[in-house]
Every structure is written in structure tokens, then in C-alpha cells.
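Q: Sequence in, structure out?
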Amino acid sequence: MKTKKETKLTHLDKNGMPKMVDVSEKKDTVRTASAHAKVTMSEEAFKLAVGGGGKKGDVFGTAKIAGIMAAKKTSELIPLCHPLNIEGCDIVFKPEEKDNSVDIISTVKISGKTGVEMESLTAVTAAALTVYDMLKAADKSMEISEIYLISKEGGKSGIYKRK
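A: Exactly. Output:
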């Protein structure tokens, strides 16, 4: 009977203690990752968001800047993440009128020794939190959900695409 290959957690040493992964021997490759988040809100808040602003200004413009800044600061927020030289980051907002929601997609790109999945996930999360902050005067019951990795490319593990 075939057994599934045991998954080894790379951020733990042989004694089970946290460690930063040594990437010094890895080769630089182009790496990209895309992530998703969703913010669902009231009709009033949705109209403010797609109309260009709430009381604090341009919701999506501000959230985009917050997401890009967060991607660049990921190693300061997530323990054991390597500081990366982000070479590209874009965030797209897709309003869905049928359920007063906004899908947020981030794509982060580098040429380096380690992936950018955490940077992309951090970017969409910060963007979603900023949408909440910008619109909370209109709707404190907004819901942030569906945060997940869509895809990643590059490195030893190759391509991943969410099903």
C-alpha cells in the first residue's frame, strides 16, 4: 500500500522550535502569487464605495495603497518571513452589486529565492481592512471573508492554482 509522503514543516528545526528557513543556496527565479479577499456590506456602504468615496475619501484608491504598503512590510508582520524586494504589486477591486460585495485580488511579483504568497495574502487582507475602515461610518457590520491564495508560480514547488 502506498503511503502519502510526509509533509515536513520548513519553519521548525529538528527539535520542533521555530526557525527562519535558510534560502542562501536557492537560485533566484521569477515568482508571483495572487490572493483573494471579499468584503460584503450594506447597500449604502456599497454605493459609497463604488461612487468614489465615503467621508474619508476614495475607498478603493486608499485601500490599494494600503495593500501595496502591506505587501512591502510583510516580513515585519509575520514572524520568520524573509524581507523581500517586491518588484511588482497590483490590487484590483471587483464590485458585485448583486450582493453588495467587493472582491479584492492582489498580485505580487519578485525575482528572488523565496515565494511571495504571504505578501499577496497580506496585501489583500490590508486592502480589505482599509475598505472596512473607510466605510465603517456607514456600516459597522461589514464582513471580510474568503481570504485565500489563488495561485503561485516559481521556485522548486512550481505552479499552484486553486481549484
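Residues 117-135 form the longest helix (19 residues).
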